[in-house]
Specification:
Layout: E1 2-5, H1 8-14, E2 19-24, H2 31-35, E3 42-44, H3 52-59, E4 65-68, H4 75-87, E5 93-96, E6 100-104, E7 108-111, E8 118-123, E9 127-134, E10 142-143, E11 150-163, E12 168-173, H5 177-185
Parallel strand pairs: 1-2, 2-3, 4-5
Antiparallel strand pairs: 5-6, 6-12, 7-11, 8-11, 8-12, 9-10, 9-11
């Protein structure tokens, strides 16, 4: 099911993907796109305090969201999407890019990585974790965006990752989208709780 976030409607329409809902403040969706989406599928949220991605995640009721079109392009939009992922860590969401996927590192995850594949852990706030199967284990390290980060690590084969808080992005090869999604949707998967405001 496709839910378009504001101007993303143009991409879905160009790809001939049916849009079940359009969510956003409608500041970047064109009149031409709006004319192709029935009014009862348009959900305008006029406030400007949040991004269209935030608005969509607030209104979508799904076990998992795959975000397309949030990686690449404008760097400011990409950074905003990363912030949204962390803010909504309780909502399983994977951003799909041309070569990589990005998600909030869950409390625990087994990774179907192959030897030599890049596994990056980027902290958005201070976070601790542990790992197996990585060239440079993260056990005992304090990852922090202004200090030590965990990018460009290498898998030695299948790996595991455990994190103590929902403050790290996990960046993996795109080919892992299916096993990652399956892992996030497992009935015994442990996710992050809703953040306290």
């Amino acid at each position: 099911m496709c839910v378009a976030a504001d101007g993303g409607a143009a991409l879905a329409l160009a790809a001939q993907v049916p849009i079940e809902a359009l969510i956003g403040d409608f500041d970047s969706v064109t009149a031409a796109s709006l004319s192709q989406i029935p009014p009862d599928r348009q959900f305008k949220v006029s406030e400007q305090e949040t991004t269209d991605f935030d608005k969509a995640l607030c209104l979508i009721d799904a076990p998992l969201v795959i975000g397309v079109g949030f990686l690449g392009g404008r760097i400011d939009h990409q950074l905003a999407a990363f912030s949204t992922l962390v803010r909504f860590a309780h909502r399983p969401c994977v951003l799909l890019g041309a070569e990589q996927i990005v998600l909030v590192a869950p409390p625990e995850m087994a990774l179907a990585t192959q030897a030599g594949e890049i596994v990056s852990i980027y902290p958005m706030a201070p976070v601790h974790g542990s790992s197996t199967g990585l060239e440079w284990p993260i056990d005992g390290l304090r990852l922090d965006p202004t200090g030590r980060i965990g990018t460009s690590n290498l898998a030695r084969g299948p790996a595991t990752l455990s994190m103590d808080s929902p403050n790290a992005l996990l960046i993996l090869p795109r080919r892992l989208i299916l096993p990652v999604v399956q892992s996030l949707l497992r009935s015994d998967a442990v996710g992050w709780p809703l953040r306290a405001e």
